[in-house]
Amino acid sequence: MSLRVRIAPSPTGPLHVGTARSALFNYLFAKKEGGAFILRIDDTDKKRSDKAFEEDIKKNLLWLGISWDDSIRQSERTALYRKHLQKLLEEGILFRCSHTSAELAQEREELIKNKQTPMHRCKDRDAVLGGGILRFKNMETAPVVFHDEIRGNISFDPKILGDFSVARDIDSPLYNFTTVVDDIDLGITHVIRGEDHIPNTPKQILLARALGHTELFSYAHLPLILGKDRSKLSKRHGAVAISQYQKEGYLPDAMINFLALLGWHPKKQKAGERGKGQEEEIFSREELIGIFSLHAVQRGGAIFDPEKLKWMNGVYIRQMNVGMLANLLLPYLKDEWRKQAESDGLWWGKIVILEQERLGSLQDIGDRIGYFFEEPLVKKEVLMGGFSDTVRIASHLRSIQKIIEGCSAGNFTKDVISEKVLEYAGQHAKKEVLWPFRVSLTGKKASPGLFEVAEILGKKTVLKRLEYAATLLES
Ligand code: GLU
Questions:
Q1: Orientation angle between helical segments 450-457 and 414-426, nearest 10 degrees
Q2: Which of 91, 156, 180, 410 has the CB geometry, 3.0–4.6 Å to 207, for a possible disulfide?
Q3: Closest C-alpha to 33, from 306, 254, 220, 230
Q4: Smallest CA separation from ligand 1 atom 4, residue
Q5: Residue 167 has what DSSP assignment?
Q6: Which of 264, 283, 263 is nearest to 273 (CA)?
Q7: Does an H or E element contain 175, and which?
Q8: Which H/E stretch holds residue 209?
Q9: Residue of minimum CA distance from atom 6 in ligand 1
């Protein structure tokens, strides 16, 4: 039988990094083994499901490059679920529970108070007609055991499952039921999902058997994703929606690489063969498909480290072709700046080359390059840095001004500028010359290569800024 896996998001929120990681592991596994990857939208909860979230989930999976071979929506399969519910009711495998929700709530509260597992076992388990939720008549006495590809054998005492609920009514099946019906119907072979679903698995196994599916699915429960404080990842830790990372200028390949390492790492010697250092963590999509295996997934929680993600994104930004990066950065510029960049691609490309080394995300560009587009705010105390002799610093600026005046505008390159300015700086305290020069041009204490910046600004602008800075010190 060919391998088939699925990702089954509930459209009750945007695509979350946890769901994206589960989708990716299923996807990599399917691609590696030549199987099929199916998207199932779990939208039976009519109140909480929203079409907009379904769209967000699909759009962002595709943005990550995770495409599916087939997709279904549970809300369109009510007739199938009803047919199976009806049959199981007739067979006496399900029954209608006569207890009111108030009675059930009270029972639950008492069990929790007495430190017992909350579950419900009905006295009357034969009701087939009337109202009441549909429950599984749990007659099981032997432990329910399954093999988890990551965790080994897991065994459950069937008693703690009680007569678990299966549907609110004949037209409102619940998660454990719909998931089993669909996993069987779609010919799913491997169920790969978050570890929070381990307690659901014995229920699903009992239901699968009741539906005549005797062959067990293979299971793999992925470790929880944790924040750096080791608590379950949530909004408290920062962005958890994939769309947010897209907005902030993370690249899909970097996201994929990062998500793949959330709980999985290739066997050490394999990584070693590729070289050392950072390279051990950088894997292209194709490489991931080639080396992914469920056996290398860890059991313990996986820490989501936003700084590592940013570092990794920077690695991918640096690997990018400049022209492509220049285009990708445009939307992150203010309108005015974007127009300027678009009207002079060559000039914009030079700025991009300068910044490419330094970006962690595309969004970072905005804060860094304002001085190329607008006159920077130059402050006297920044110009002076730690120096005290204002007259001397001003005179250095006047000297650079003269040097720049002597450069030809047609050959205003970083090499020409650096040769002349460094010759002058070499005859003085070098820092006293270069520091105020940098601040005059950028308003900042730190910037990319000063002479590259000067070349991009052009002779006229450099002269204007030197004049402004020198006058500021002289006034
Ligand atoms: N809709 C479920 C969830 O989002 C699917 C779990 C499963 O994969 O069975 O958690």
A1: 130
A2: 180
A3: 220
A4: 9
A5: E
A6: 283
A7: helix 175-185
A8: helix 201-210
A9: 8
